């Protein structure tokens, strides 16, 4: 990185950031050079343009007038570093719920940011990419749900990468669900423009004791965007996180998805659907680590690959010594629609204690020709028949998504991605 200490300090002054955050940036910038890139089984991404290069820039983003998003009552919309909309119901605000962008969070909620920002779930010194993220983060959001608060309506966000100009997209989301709270959060990642850029995105979910977070995401970053996407959950006693992630990106991406089950009785359900098309590579490393007794970690990943693309699923279940009664299960399956595509499904179980339950299933295979023949014999064209078979293959993950609206939207995204992917072949 070409940053200097003076550049970082000047940017922090310009943004009116508190001293602790300036110090975090400087410490991470110094540390980044000595750290290594993160390593993932069978995901060879080290030669990608995935490291951040741009200096911190003070100029505001511009965006098109016809920016598309679906309005909702409780919503945050950002394009690049600019907040387009931030709206939260007055009743929720009165209860102490916080939904705001990164700049406002640092000014008005510095106590929460100092306590939780890259201190608990993701640490800046984990690897070179997390350190670069801390040093260069320029946009993001804070969502805080107070103790014993149950939010019935989902909170939605649209985070739109501005690829109309050459600029790294360094974005951070911090979600804190306090004791016995409950929230549904729906995140949309999009790209406007086609300039080649790097995206480094970190999402931290802190689930305090007895809380329940339903996290759904639709990821549709552009073909010329190379992405490191780190989503991490930190769960205390009896906390639960339901992850439902639709990986419909068009560019190369490394997905680093972890759930740390720190507390007794904590529970993570991770569901991932991915479709790779063209020449793109999606490497998805999903890990659940059982620290707490009687903790539960389940991973369900289904993916489809077309044309000359590649998709790698790593599923890691790790039961730490002392996690008596823990349960770690995983299933990763990849369906290939092209002889030129490449798929990997790698199950990994690391068991360091007795009196636990663990299991895995993994497969990579082609479309069942007898199913295709049956559908085509009923008059369906081959491409439509293929899409029906694919939807049947992805069905077990879709039906496991707890929110009906998310299921419907994810189904529509799958159809759009498949139609576009078949057109490219």
UniProtKB/TrEMBL annotation:
Annotated SUF system FeS cluster assembly SufBD N-terminal domain residues: 90-155
SUPFAM superfamilies the record matches: Stabilizer of iron transporter SufD
Similarity remark: Belongs to the iron-sulfur cluster assembly SufBD family.
PANTHER family: FES CLUSTER ASSEMBLY PROTEIN SUF, UPF0051 PROTEIN ABCI8, CHLOROPLASTIC-RELATED
Residue ranges annotated for the SUF system FeS cluster assembly SufBD core domain, each copy included: 161-393
Name the UniProt record assigns to this protein: Fe-S cluster assembly protein SufD
